[in-house]
Structure formats: C-alpha cells, structure tokens
Amino acid sequence: MADNAGAPKPSSSVKLVLLGEAAVGKSSLVLRFVNDDFQENKEPTIGAWSHRPSNFTLTLISAAFLTQKCNLPTRTIKFEIWDTAGQERFASLAPMYYRNAQSALVVYDITKPSSLTKAKHWVAELQRQASPGIVIALVGNKLDLAGPANEESGVTDTEEEETQGDEENRRAISTQEAKAYAEEEGLLFYETSAKTGENVQTVFEAIANAIPESTLKPRGAGGLGGAGRGGAGEQAPVNVGDASRPKEGCAC
Amino acid sequence: MFSSLIQKAATYLTEAPAPSSANRPNKAAIFRSYFRLPDNQTPLQEITCELTAPTGDHYVGKLYLSEAFLCFTLYPPSSSSAAPATAGVGFTLPLCAVRRVERLHSRSYMFALAITTWHGAASTKEERLTLQFTGMRSSCESFCDRLKRALRIQMSEVKNMKLLTETCYSEYLLGTTSESKADGKKREKDPPDAGLGMLFRYPGDSRKLRDRSKMRLWAEYLRENGRNVTLIRQPTFHKLVRVGLPNRLRGEIWELTSGSMYLRMFNPRLYQDTIKEFEGRHSLSIDEIEKDLNRSLPEYRGYQHEEGIARLRRVLGAYSWVNEDVGYCQAMNIVTAALLIYMSEEQAFFLLSTLCDRLIPGYYSTTMYGTLLDQRVFESLVEKTMPILWEHLNKADVQLSVVSLPWFLSLYINSMPLVFAFRVLDVFFLEGPKVLFQIGLAILRINGEELLDATDDGAFISILKSYFSRLDESAHPRSENEKLRAVTRFQELMVVAFKEFSQITASTVSEERIKHKEAVMSSISSFAKRTQLRNLGPEAKRLDAADLSIIYDRFHAALYERQLRDAAEQEKRKKQVKSSSASTKSNISSNPLSTSSNPTTMDYNTFRDFLSTIAAWGVADTPPPPPQTNPYTSTAYQPPPQEPADHDFIHRLFRRFDSDLSNALSLPNVVSGLAGIVGHRKDLMHTITYWFELYDDDGDGRIDREGILRISEALLFVTRRSLPPPSPTAEIDPSSIFLAAVSGFIRRCFEYADEHVYSPTDPLSPPPLIDLPDLPSPPSAMSPSGEKKNLRDSNPVLDPKRPLFVTLPTFRMVVLADETLERFFESGWADTFILSKNRNPNNVLSAPMDSGLHAFPFSGQVPSLKGIRGVLDGIVDEATRVAAEVRRRMEENQAAEIQEEEEEGEKEGVGAEEGDRELLKGAEAETVEMGRVRSEEGEEGERRRRSLKVVEERGEVEWGVEEGEGKS
C-alpha cells in the first residue's frame, strides 16, 4: 500500500499525538481515519482489545500506536499516530508521547463542556512543552449528535439548545466559541464525527498540509517556521483545497 | 487529580516496600517484606538453627519469631538482600498452623524442638520439622519462652486458618488422593473455587502445558513438604514454579509466594463486607471500571460472559473502595482479569492489594510515579547492559519507554500471549519485581540485532510485536540438535532473563530506584504544578506567576505537613493500642489495605498552617507548647517552628475563601481567595467592600455594633506583626498611629451609624442587648457617673441597648476619613501577604521602612527600643483582648456561651469578673506608662487610647468628653 499513489512523490513521516479527555472519541477518530471504520459502543480508550484492525501495529496499555499514509498532491505523509489513554492519571505519561511530535490532535466532545476545558489545558501544555513548531489541531468530535440544522452555522444560544430534546441536538459547545478560541491560539479547527466520518480525513489532510516542508526531512527536528499557524483555523478547509473529495485525499 | 502527587511521591519514594515508614526502611519493614508478612509483624526473636525438613533434608539458617509467624531462611534479610525469602529455602509458618511443639530429649548441650504442623498430624505419616538451635542456652530458652507465649495468643486464629485452608485447592487435591483411607464421604464435596478457568477452561492447551504431570509433581511435593500455610520451600519448589504452575494450583501458589494469603487469613470477612457495604454506591472509579469491563482480556471466554464480568466488577470495585487513593487505574482491569482466571474473587482482591501496595507500589497511583520511576530504571539498566542498542535508540530518537511501559504496567499480560504472561507472573510473585526488568532486558537482548535496524517507533514496535506472537515457536528451528530444536522462544527468553541477567537483583533495582527518584519526582511535580496552575479560574490571572507558584508550594507544603502530623499521631495511637493489647488483629482488622488518604483540600486548621507561612499575622504570639515526650519519634516529623494563629478573622477568611461551601479549601479556592485580596492591591474601594462583606454576616448590607468591634479587633490583629519597628528618626510610633486610627474608626462608626428602628416583629432586628451590669467605673478618665446617664440619653446611638448598624457607604466614609486606614485598605492589607520574594512590600502604613519588616520579630532587633516595643506590644495585645472580653461579657449576659472566650478567661487564671478588672487595671497601667515613655504623643493620644479601652470594655461610649478632639 506504500507507493500506489504514483511516481516519485517525496514521502516523509510525521509523528502525531492524540490528546483529550476520556471518552471524547480519540480512538474512534483514529480508527475512522486509519480503517474507515466505526464501532458503536465498543469504542473507548486504552487496552482497546475490541478493535484490533490489521493496521494497529500494537495496542498498548497507555497508548495505541498506529500508522496511516496520507497522499497529498505534492508529497506523501506517513502519520505515526500515538493515541493516548484518556484517563486522567495517564496525563503524567503524556510528555512521553508528545515528545518530538510534529503535530497534535486535541479532541473534545461538542456535547460536553468540560472536555473543551481539558482540551485547552492540553493546548497550553503543548504550546509550552512540546516541540516549538508543533501543528496543533483542535477537533470537536461527535458532530453527529448536533442538530442537523446547524452543522456549520454557529450555535450561539447554547442554553436554549440544551433545553431541546436530547435526540435532536445535544451540542453544548458552539462552533463559534471553539473557533474563536482556536483562532486566538493559532490552531487548526474542525468539527468532526467519527461515526459518520464527516471531516475526519479533512483534519488529517489539513495537518499534513500545515506541516512545513522544512521540518519534514530530518524527522523530529522541530522547525521554527510557525507551522502554518495563525488564522489557520479559519482558512484551513480552504488550504486543503479540495475538502469536497475527502476519500481521495488519503487513499490507503 | 495531581494535587496529591507531591506528598504521594514523597511518601512512596522515600520508603521501600512498607508504607508509612520514614526515610529508610527500618529493620521491621525489611523483615516483613522479606518474608512477605502483614504490616503489623515485627521481628521479636532470632536464632541460628538447623532445620530438618520432613523429607530428611538438613539446612542451617536463621529462625525468626514475630507476633504471629515463625520464619526460617538460609540467608538473613538485609536492606540489600537479593530476593525475598520465598525465592529461597525456608518457611513462613503462621503460628496458628502449629499443632504441637515438643522439646526433644537430647544430650544436654543440644537444644532442639520438634514442630508438628496443622497438616503434619492430619496426614497419614507423622510429619514434623525439627529445629536444632545453636547458641547460648539462655537465648535458646528465651526464644522458646517467647514462642510459647506467641503460640498461646495465636490460638484464637486457628479458626481463621481453618477457614482459609478450606478454600485452598491443595487441600482438595491431597484430600481426594488420600480419600480411600480416611473419611471418604466427606471428600466428595466440590472443589474450591480455583478461578474462572474452572468454568471457562484455562487458557492454553493443557496437554501441551503438561498440566497433569505438573499436578502430579506438585501433589507429591505438597504431600511431603506441607501445603498452603505450612509449606516448606525446598529447591524443588522453585524448580516447579519456574517450569510453570499447574492451572488449578496457580492461584494458591501466587497467593502464597506473594504473601497475600496471610492478609486474607487475618481478614476473613473484609472482602465480603466491603462488597456489602458499598453495594450500589457510585464514584468516579466505579464509573471508570464500568467502562473498561468489556475491554479486559475480551479474548478470554470467561469475559465474554456475564459471570466473568461480574467477578471483575466486584473485585475492582471493592479494591477501589478499600484504597481510595489508588481507586482505579486502567491496566488494573487487565491484571485483575488475569488473576481471576486462576483464583477466587477474594483471593484476587487480596493479591491485587498486595500488588499495589508492595510489589509494584505507585504503578497505579494517581500520578503513576512508580511506573515512571521504573521506566527510568529500566532505561538505565538497558544503557548499562546493552550500550550499543541504547546508543542506537538515542540516535534514532526512539523513546524506549513508549514500548516498555505497557510491559511493566500490565505485567506483560497485555503484551505476550496469555499462557506466557502467566509463566512470567509465576516467577514474578516468587522473586519480586526484578523479574519484570530481567524479562524486559532479555526481550531486548534477544531482538537486539533486528532492533538495531529499526529507526522509528513504528519499526521498533512491529519487531517486538512479531516476536511476541511467535514465542511458542522453536528458538533454533534449523538446529541439527533435536533437543535444541525443541527449545521454544519463550524458554529461551526465560533462560536469557534469569541466566544472562542474573546480575539484576532486587538490590540492583532498589539502588537504581533511589538514584532516579529525585529526577522522576521533580518532573512529575513540575508537570502537576503547571497542570494545576493552569487549571485555576480566571481570578488567578490577577496574580503573577511567581505568586501562584508560591501559593501552590505553600498550599501543598501545608497539606503535607498536616498529613505527616496526622500520620504521626495515628502511629502514636496505634502504638498505644498495640501495647495495651498484644492481639495481632488489633490493627489488621482496622482496614489493613487502606493507606492514609491524601487530601487535596485544607480544613480550617490546615488553612491556619498555610496562612502562617504566607502572612506574618498568621503566626500566633504564644510560643508553641514545649514538645512532649518525643511524640513523633516514629516518623522524622518535627512540628513546625511557628504555631499558627487562631482568630475569628481567620475563620471569616476561611469561610470567604470557601466559595463552594464545602467547608474545605481546594487550591483553586485559595488562589481565587488570595487573588481577591492581593490581586486587588491599590483597589481601595474593592478592599473596603471586601472587608465590609467579611463582616456582614447575614448579607443584608449592615454591620452591627458587634461587627464593628470585631472589625477593629481584626484590624489590630492583622497589623500586630506587620507594623514597622519604630525608627529612631520617625517622630511618632507607627503602631500608636494605627491604634489611634482604629480607635477613631470605632468612634466614627458609632457616630455615623444608623439607628435601627426596632420593631419586635421585624425579623431582621436583633434582640435588644441586655443592659450590662454596672461595672465599677475605672478610677479616672471617666466623666462623673452622674453625667453618664445624661450623655447616654442625649446620644441614643451610643446606647448599647439600641441596635445600630453601619452600611457600606458609611463604612466607606469612615475608612476614608482616616489617612492611615485609607492607606491600609489601599495597599497595606494586600501587603500583609508575603508572596513573591522579590516584591518590596510597602508597610501597612506606607511609612518609609526597611523591607524586612514583615519578619520583624517582636523580641526586638534594636535593643535600646526593646522596652518601648514591649509596651506597645502589650497595648496592641491588650486592646484586642479587651475587645474580646467585652464581647464575652455581652454574650454572657445574653446567656450565650462561647467556648473560645471562656478558655481565654480560664487562661487568665482568675474569675471572669475579677479578670476583667485586672485586665483593665493592667491596661490602665500600661497606657499610663506608655504615656510617660512617649510623652511626645501628648495627652490627647493617651486619652484616646484609654477611652478606646473603655469603650470596648463597657460597650458604651463617653465620647462626649472628648468631643473636642474633632475629626482630622
């Protein structure tokens, strides 16, 4: 599956770490990205014996390691993904995994306000402790639980939303709120659904695009280029250019 | 979540296996961990002796006696002992399992005992141990004496021992084989629970595992050497463990070699009681457990079934309740699921707690410091033993622990196929945690060549994954030698681990742990600190990073100190209990599994400790009571040098900080509390409002007479140590300026107070104060008492019978009317907190001063001024005390008794009323003296001070006399 994308595109590997509160859907996101698969209920975090697809190189107690290639028009990116455990006490192990990571996916659950708070902590931690050029994407998962009407339009009045029926819309964090935060911090920002697959490929493509070329050759050497930050949150879908054909983006 | 880590890490890292011991594991702790004994055992006697086992083998070694055990080993335990006693020849015999002890008739210079064990007599042939003592006759005698006494006490445990043995598979095993001989009918009962394997089959092919022949060998061994509690370990025992335990005995031998069997014996009801007690209760741990139940060894059939899941749920749940500090950590589900395949719930419960407390302490704690530390140790061992591989890893920038951490955390259960992981566990329980390191090193050594080609995490991981999946294959498939071909990769792994890495011993591991603990601890605590500081609310932004850092440190220091103190006291109590009753159960039964919990919040007393480290006024004036007769010997704990103050004001501050009304302060509480003070430095109006609210108890925007007095008292209280020493150049002593300001404050408050229109139906209005009995008026300074009444009439506001109050605007006005107070509220108050070291605090009166003022000891730096200081000191003290006295009187008259103040009264050593008078006299005398010494202040100042006292003392006001003084 390696070089099927075509001729001599340069290929490089990128270390990516997933962080976020327990049960926000980190593993589901990766599983969807790597395997285009989603397992209802069986999901959550660590040990993850229940899903052990062939791509899972090894499933570990504190984090799972997976790889997936992502073909961009000009190059191939091989993601080496560390999917960390969400249980709070495992947080002290996180530095082990984000060390030298060139990119990070900080995931929260759009139906759970506390998970955004936690995500913000992770962002702060990464900005202070991880490699200087790290590309961080903030991802609000479980978009499928938001009402169908307002996928894109920001939900401003969250309180009103909450009073509505559970089935309809369980969104508790508005797109605008999270987006504004992401812009302020210079993060990529997406809302995804691992269940439907919506935006999942897009996120990884956006990250792949945002990694500055200069940091790619010597693996792990964090470049100083700011890694496509700054306003990326808003622009990112455009940067990818063709968000309309996610399937093609990462063909594996 | 991380809050407790400093203490936790500290407590763990400074000790070896036994909890709650001080820096170095003491002799008793080493002894316990060596023989795998419960925490209440101590070595009482020891003697050299020769053991003759029932099999006829002789061994010379040491015999130890503890409260409930008789232990024999060839090598005496020491801090650097290589392995636990279970790894060598010997026995650990509970005294309750001793049926008979006989003194052998022998030649006069010989001293020998024959011990018949519980199983000895039950079995067909007479089975006894012979112990021949070597040593002075007297020491032999004293050993025997002690033994006799201990045996008698332990008689009561026989019942528990019987209960235990009934659940041991070995009893069933040997019982059925000798069934034909004795009571055959009884033996037909069901075998005891030997884990889920009995219901769902044990993992692996039992024929391939040669389970039957192993079982035969074990039956033979157990018959000759005793079983479960009475087992004697001979070299065969270790060989039998190394080749892998048979399925149905595995749980029992794990229990025995880890020592968890003894815990279970002495706590026969703990598991069931815990289940019952906490049934249906919820906690974070319970929720987390629930999420993981379906992900714990799901490939094993038992866990695809409700029965297996239910057992796992109960054991993990019970443990999370018994040890709430650890609660539940992912990976415990995997380990417990593995245990439950081979043992009953109760057995697994005690083995799990032995694991968490002893074998791998800190692995599953909230910070996982044990895990991180052992990873560091492992890395350092790799660097030492395989330098080339280590260098390669560094070059390739692969972090070893991302690979090895899960091995340790799940004891290889999640990494290797189950059958092999259990073989590792067999040895692990016998020989201790060094086994984890040996296996890990062997894995790397065996795969070394291939690993040298791997250049990233992915390649590294996949090499090892493929290795683990082929452990059952031949290690030398192409070898000509058939025997060599038959060696599996797993056997090879065991050989490499225990032969090539035999130099990795328990002491290697503990030395390495000591070497790395500091680095690991500091990285954990800095991680926790920045996480926690980031977690604080928006209020925290009012404080700068340095302040936050200081608050964090002091907060945790206070918690830690308090914990040490509590622990020391507990220890003391324990000792008392112990000395009063020699029963072994005295402290086992009081929840042996729970370690002292690590608080993350401060109660009021801890808050006082905390304040005493960040504010000068937080330190009490009275020196701490002299240390009693060595109360804290057991830990290295020393009481803090400064006794924290206790004051109504501190109570109020505590309540104010406690914004979530939990009666405890978390770090965010404290930070936002302090941010509300220090963060508003220079914000005069805010601070005035803050103080007003502190004393507006019912939140109705009014502070009554009582409150006003309390405020003035508090003002004196918080400034009593923060006042600068009178500098020789300053004309007026700052303390007296402040005193004057406070007295002016009271006066103005009363003057401008609104009168509460009293109506009996108004619930807001306090009941009228009862008239004070006429105090003998102080000799001087009073207007003639005749006029008093008139005055009172003419100024009804001053009448104590009439309720009055100040509102915030009045309060504000009164404060602003005085420059000194204004300065205090503007910045002085905030500056009484000593945070960042480099801040140059302004004095509360913002008079020029040296920066060291906060710490200025009242004992006086400047000898020549000592006298004056003493007097001043007295005045401030007196003023606060008098105020307190007044209140006491008022309250007494209202038949309300407040204990605190009563105590204060008692302290005076005189009857309350007399005390008052004395007090007053004292105050008088001092003011007079004061006036003399500081004549430059003039009479006015003195009068003011005196009248302040009178006001406070009598609760009534004679301001009329001094009306002329005017307002500044």
TrEMBL record, chain A:
Composition bias, Acidic residues: 157-166
GO molecular function: GTP binding; GTPase activity
Region (Disordered): 147-171, 215-252
One Pfam family recorded for the sequence: Ras
Alphabetized CDD domains for the sequence: Rab5_related (cd01860)
Segments of skewed composition (Gly residues): 220-233
InterPro entries tied to this protein: P-loop_NTPase, Small_GTP-bd, Small_GTPase
TM region(s), chain numbering: none
Organism superkingdom: Eukaryota
Assigned keywords, A-Z: Nucleotide-binding
Keyword DNA-binding: no
NCBIfam families assigned to the protein according to its UniProt record, in alphabetical order: small_GTP (TIGR00231)
Protein name: Ras family protein
Lineage summary: Eukaryota, Fungi, Dikarya, Ascomycota, Pezizomycotina
Automatic annotation (TrEMBL), chain B:
Compositionally biased region (Low complexity): 578-601
Compositional bias (Acidic residues): 898-916
InterPro entries registered for this protein in UniProt: EF-hand-dom_pair, GRAM, PH-like_dom_sf, Rab-GAP-TBC_dom, Rab-GAP_TBC_sf, Rab_GAP_TBC_domain
Any GO MF annotation of the entry: small GTPase binding
Record's compositionally biased regions (Pro residues): 763-781
Region (Disordered): 570-601, 763-796, 892-949
Keywords associated with the record: GTPase activation
Ranges of biased composition (kind: Basic and acidic residues): 917-936
Pfam families: GRAM, RabGAP-TBC
Domain Rab-GAP TBC residue range list: 244-432
PANTHER family per UniProt: RAB GTPASE-ACTIVATING PROTEIN 1-LIKE, TBC1 DOMAIN FAMILY MEMBER 2B
The protein's name: TBC-domain-containing protein
Source organism per UniProt: Ascodesmis nigricans
Lineage per the UniProt record: Eukaryota, Fungi, Dikarya, Ascomycota, Pezizomycotina
